[in-house]
Amino acid sequence: MEHPLIELSGLGHRYGNVVALDNLDVNVPPGSIGLVGANGAGKSTLIRILLGILRPTTGTVRVLGHDIPRELIEMRARVGYMAEGSTLPLDQTAADFMVYAAELAGIPTKAAKQRASDVLTLVGLHEERFRALGDFSTGMKQRAMLAQAIVHDPDLVFLDEPTAGLDPEGRDEMLHLITRLGTFGIHVLVSSHVLSDIERTCDWVVMLDGGKLLRNGPIDRIVSSNTLELEVLGDSQAVAQALRSRGAEVETQPTSLLVTSPADTDTDVLIRDALADTHTGMRRLTAKQTSLEDLFLESGDA
C-alpha cells in the first residue's frame, strides 16, 4: 500500500510565546498538494519542519513514509526544494549550477551534465544555459530555481511561493511547468497565498489560518456546493416563498435566487415542484460557483 505523502499528528511549533502551528493532524495522499493561507499562516514554518530544518515543538511528522527526524537523510534524498526568493549564485552559468546541484545529489559528473541539459530544456532555459544567472530576468530565475529543485528527479518537490514577483506571462509559464511535473511522476507541494494558483495546479488543499487547520481535502469536494442559482420567468418572490415552505434556504439576488436544499433532499426536484405550484417558467439553473478564496474568507468569518 502506498504511503501518504505527508502525515502529521498533533504537530505544533512555537517561536517563544508565538504559536506558529497549533496541533495539526493532517494526512495527504500522493498528487499535487496546495498549502494555502495568508502571509503568517504558518506555511513556511510547516515546510521547514517537513524538510527537517526545524524540529517541531510537539507532535510527529512523516514524509514519503519516513519518520522525521529519525530518517531525515533517507527522506531528503527523495525530495526537492524551491525556496521563496532568489537563492541562486549569480556569478555562475545556469548549466554550471545545474551540474553542481545534480552532483550534490550524488549523480556522477557525466550523468549530471546530461541531467542539467534535460532539466534546463524542460523549464525553457536551454538557449540561456551558458548565461550567468545574474543576467536572468525574474521569471528566468524562478524557472532556474525550479530546475535545481528537480534536477535529481525527486519523488516530491516543495515549492514555496513559486510565482512570487512574476508578471502575468511569467506566472502562466510557471503554473504550466508545475502542472507538467505530475506527468514525470513528481509529486508536488505548492505553498502559496494566491488561491487561484492552487486551483489551477493542485488536486488537494491544506488550508491554514493563524497556524490552525481550516480545511484538508480534495479541491473538487471542498469547493463543491449544494447551492443552485435559479433564474425564473415570472414572479421570483412567489417561487422563493414556495421553496422556503419546502424547507429550502433562499437568498434573493437582483436577477436570480440562490437555493440551498435541506440535507438528503434533491434540490432539482424541490425547484421543479415549486415552479409547478407557482406556474412559473425557468430561464436558467446552474450550480453556484465557489472558489478557495470564498471558502477561506468564510472560514475566517466563522
Q: How is the secondary structure organized here?
A:
Layout: E1 6-15, E2 18-28, E3 32-36, H1 43-50, E4 58-63, E5 66-68, H2 72-76, E6 79-82, H3 94-104, H4 109-122, H5 138-150, E7 156-160, H6 168-181, E8 187-192, H7 195-201, E9 204-209, E10 212-218, H8 219-223, E11 227-233, H9 236-245, E12 249-252, E13 257-260, H10 267-278, E14 281-287, H11 292-301
Parallel strand pairs: 3-8, 3-9, 6-7, 7-8
Antiparallel strand pairs: 1-2, 1-4, 4-5, 9-10, 11-13, 11-14, 12-13
Helix pairs in contact: 3-4, 4-5, 9-10
Instruction: Just give the CATH class of the largest domain.
Output: Alpha Beta
Terminal CA distance reads 38 Å
CATH homologous superfamily label of the largest domain: P-loop containing nucleotide triphosphate hydrolases
- The fold-level CATH name of the largest domain is Rossmann fold
Question: In words, what does this structure look like?
Answer:
- This protein is an alpha/beta fold and 302 residues long.
- It folds into 2 domains: 6-222, Rossmann fold (3-Layer(aba) Sandwich); 225-301, Alpha-Beta Plaits (2-Layer Sandwich), CATH 3.30.70.100.
- 36% of the residues lie in helices and 28% in strands.
- It is built from 11 helices and 14 strands.
- The strands form 3 sheets. It has a 6-stranded mixed sheet, sandwiched between helices. Strands 2-1-4-5 form a 4-stranded antiparallel sheet.
- Helix 9 packs across helix 10.
- The radius of gyration is 24 Å and the shape is elongated.
